[in-house]
Design brief:
This protein has 276 residues and is α+β, with helices and mostly antiparallel strands. The protein has two domains: 6-144, Fructose-1,6-Bisphosphatase, Chain A, domain 1; 157-273, D-Maltodextrin-Binding Protein, domain 2 (3-Layer(aba) Sandwich). The chain is built from nine helices and 15 strands. The strands form three sheets. It has an eight-stranded mixed beta sheet with strand order 4-3-5-6-7-8-9-10, with helices on both faces. A hairpin with a 2-residue loop joins strand 9 and strand 10 (143-145). Helix 1 (6-27) packs antiparallel against helix 2 (47-63) and helix 5 runs parallel beside helix 6 (215-227). The chain binds D-MYO-inositol-1-phosphate and calcium ion (2 copies). One calcium ion is lined by residues 89, 92, 193, 216-217.
């Protein structure tokens, strides 16, 4: 059997996320310098990322041997191209984790029939879990959750992420940030995109935007947003958020106003993206 019933499968995904989360907590605030390295400039990986990933990949293989895993540090678990895919960030928010800042998560999205249908974001430090199965709604610690009732940017609290790995995007990003910042109540940069999406799905944030995320940052959170009644698109306004990693989301009114701002600066960010 490739899939049990959606709710039962979601429980399995959550159980696997908890296995990863338990590994993270073994290293929490006890990482030594030799357990952290820079895989690219300003882009860290630690023993905690790797331990969580190993445990998650093993747990998926044991429970669903016909499923594949795409995870941030290890890549694909198998070469063939059949079966459901688990898109895994074993530690989202590595920089926070390494600095002892309690804002990080395990993020798992599962692609069933060509789209992400299941999402779990687990914050093992605070004990929060955000879950969604397509068509079954989104939940925060087991209770149904919705995006906020904000109808536009006035009075809204936004979250974002800086383009710290793609400095060529800084000027267009700052132009978008400036306009959004001037219209909303305030903006947060918490440092774990999966949690930014999950918080937006349960109405703690009213909207979120970031350029150049990876599939494992976005997969789970996107299902959460959609199942919580929100809208998620890429910066063009289309459905390419997983492939492009360029994300705008929130309740329809906030999303629409944010996207209008993004489009005012479209030539600039398109040119920056094209510049590689
Ligand atoms: C990062 C976080 C961060 C976002 C980065 C991601 P990582 O993930 O989600 O908020 O701004 O773009 O790479 O590297 O900690 O898994
Ligand atoms: Ca991540
Ligand atoms: Ca990560």
């Amino acid at each position: 059997m490739l899939f049990p019933e959606p709710e039962a499968f979601l429980d399995e995904v959550e159980a696997v996320a908890r296995i990863g989360g338990a590994e993270l907590m073994r290293y929490w605030r006890s990482l030594t310098p030799d357990q952290v390295s820079e895989k690219a400039r300003n882009d860290l990986v630690s023993a905690a990322d790797l331990a969580s990933e190993r445990a998650i990949v093993a747990a998926v293989a044991a429970r669903f041997p016909e499923h594949r895993v795409l995870s941030e540090e290890a890549g694909w678990s198998r070469d063939d191209d059949s079966g459901p895919v688990w898109i895994v960030d074993p530690l989202d928010g590595t920089t926070n984790f390494v600095h002892g800042i309690p804002q990080f998560a395990v993020s798992i999205g599962v692609v069933a029939a060509g789209r992400v249908d299941f999402g779990v974001v687990l914050d093992p430090c605070k004990g929060d879990v955000f879950t969604a199965a397509r068509g079954c709604g989104a939940r925060w610690n087991g209770a149904p959750c919705r995006v906020s009732r904000q109808s536009g940017l006035a009075g809204s609290l936004l979250a974002t992420g800086f383009p710290f790995k793609a400095h060529r995007l800084l000027d267009p990003y700052l132009a978008i940030f400036r306009e959004a910042f001037l219209r909303c109540k305030s903006v947060r940069r918490p440092g774990a995109a999966a949690l930014d999406l999950a918080y937006t799905a349960c109405g703690l944030f009213d909207g979120f935007f970031e350029f150049q995320l990876s599939p494992w940052d976005v997969a789970a959170g996107a299902v959460l947003i959609e199942e919580a009644g929100g809208v998620i698109t890429d910066m063009e306004g289309g459905g390419g958020w997983l492939a492009s990693g360029n994300v705008v989301c929130g309740p329809a009114g906030v999303h629409g106003e944010l996207l209008d701002i993004v489009h005012e600066h479209r030539d600039a960010w398109r040119a920056a993206l094209a510049g590689g």
